[in-house]
Amino acid sequence: MKMLIQSRSFALLRYPMIEVAASLSQSTVCVSSTFFRRYAIRRYTVSAPLPSSTTFSTKKLKKKLRQPVMSVLEIGGTKICRDDVVKDDPTNNVPDSIFSKLGLQLHRRDQHPIGILKNAVYDYFNKNYSSEFTKFDNLCPIVSVKQNFDDVLVPADHVSRSYNDTYYIDAQTVLRCHTSAHQAELLRMGQTHFLVTGDVYRRDSIDSTHYPVFHQMEGFRVFTPDEWEQFGMDNTTYAATELKKCLEGLTRHLFGAVEMRWVDAYFPFTSPSFELEIYFQEKWMEVLGCGVVEQEILKKNGRVNNSAWAFGLGLERLAMVLFDIPDIRLFWSNDERFISQFTGGQLGVKFKPFSKFPPCYKDMSFWINDSFTENNLCEIVRGVAGDLAETVQLIDSFTNKKRITSHCYRITYRSMERSLTDEEVNQLQSNVREEVQSKLNVVLR
């Protein structure tokens, strides 16, 4: 999909306690970024994951599956509890499984593939731009609807604003869908050259390349009239030329001498807009999206008579290719057989699969209603099975004479660390069926 907010490229757990520096945007939960830089964020988590190496009775399994997650974020002495994010609010659609990912920040772990890739991009900008780009990798993922959509010119009727696509804390607050949510705030703070890296959240399908939490990096650079006038160029041409030169260099830095091509694209807050593709492993692959920033954004945030470029890339997408990681769930693995394979500063070390456990397939058929969406189904499956759910695939659909439609979905359960028992899978499927019937108001067949 080419729209910015729907693309993973363009900005549209190993430790029991993680302490990181955090600079937060204003929201109903977060304090002002101006004051927050002097504080640290702490996360205390007690959760009940599925067992990795033991089997137990159905009764115990059911109890463990339903055990609540207890988690608190402590920010400068102020605690943010689960109820601040998973609210009893009619507009709230954030499940515990998503709340449990807040504060984990894989991109800040230097030994993790996501952190290694982020640092490789930093290295390119440090070497080629004399450290003039300010790096932000600890901005709060809780932002306002205005920051996430309005400030970057996302149309009021755009599909990305729907509750089917975005995690809403309340009607005016969301978990950011892209790192572009911080663009306007940073411009108002006087930033002109910056890189923003962070975890982003989107309700999505279940397969090997999609996950509701992933990581993005956005780059932004502002130009003044004297920069393009000395070359006798107009502002748009100059910004686009500098943008392409920068990103072609970054691509060579990450992938080596590869064939590249530029493809015209559309994003709400850049014009012209482009996607950069490379010919890699015998096929064309999109690397990132980018463009010349709309003047409306610059003028609204105090950069009158300036020009700018912006780019965004999805770190998981590139890391899966560079490290040969076959399943996006592995990035969240605590298994030492995964974690120990990577070393800080070593980009492109090829992942060696340590196991291949058998899949377990379960089919489920039901009559759908007008409000049914596949994303809602996937949220339920993830809420019950967590990362044991490998894929959810529509395998059959038909409409009867009464014009009522039936869907049949195949759910693949597979652990990346052990073999699942029949008892476990049957209980998971039973719980999924119960939740689907009660929450989606469908009729099971």
TrEMBL record:
<protein>
    <recommendedName>
        <fullName>phenylalanine--tRNA ligase</fullName>
        <ecNumber>6.1.1.20</ecNumber>
    </recommendedName>
</protein>
<dbReference type="Pfam" id="PF01409">
    <property type="entry name" value="tRNA-synt_2d"/>
</dbReference>
<comment type="function">
    <text>Is responsible for the charging of tRNA(Phe) with phenylalanine in mitochondrial translation.</text>
</comment>
<keyword id="KW-0496">Mitochondrion</keyword>
<feature type="domain" description="Aminoacyl-transfer RNA synthetases class-II family profile">
    <location>
        <begin position="198"/>
        <end position="353"/>
    </location>
</feature>
<dbReference type="InterPro" id="IPR006195">
    <property type="entry name" value="aa-tRNA-synth_II"/>
</dbReference>
<keyword id="KW-0547">Nucleotide-binding</keyword>
<keyword id="KW-0436">Ligase</keyword>
<dbReference type="GO" id="GO:0006432">
    <property type="term" value="P:phenylalanyl-tRNA aminoacylation"/>
</dbReference>
<dbReference type="Pfam" id="PF03147">
    <property type="entry name" value="FDX-ACB"/>
</dbReference>
<feature type="domain" description="FDX-ACB">
    <location>
        <begin position="355"/>
        <end position="445"/>
    </location>
</feature>
<dbReference type="InterPro" id="IPR036690">
    <property type="entry name" value="Fdx_antiC-bd_sf"/>
</dbReference>
<dbReference type="GO" id="GO:0005524">
    <property type="term" value="F:ATP binding"/>
</dbReference>
<dbReference type="GO" id="GO:0004826">
    <property type="term" value="F:phenylalanine-tRNA ligase activity"/>
</dbReference>
<keyword id="KW-0809">Transit peptide</keyword>
<dbReference type="InterPro" id="IPR002319">
    <property type="entry name" value="Phenylalanyl-tRNA_Synthase"/>
</dbReference>
<keyword id="KW-0067">ATP-binding</keyword>
<dbReference type="GO" id="GO:0000049">
    <property type="term" value="F:tRNA binding"/>
</dbReference>
<dbReference type="InterPro" id="IPR045864">
    <property type="entry name" value="aa-tRNA-synth_II/BPL/LPL"/>
</dbReference>
<comment type="similarity">
    <text>Belongs to the class-II aminoacyl-tRNA synthetase family.</text>
</comment>
<keyword id="KW-0648">Protein biosynthesis</keyword>
<keyword id="KW-0030">Aminoacyl-tRNA synthetase</keyword>
<dbReference type="InterPro" id="IPR005121">
    <property type="entry name" value="Fdx_antiC-bd"/>
</dbReference>
<dbReference type="GO" id="GO:0005759">
    <property type="term" value="C:mitochondrial matrix"/>
</dbReference>
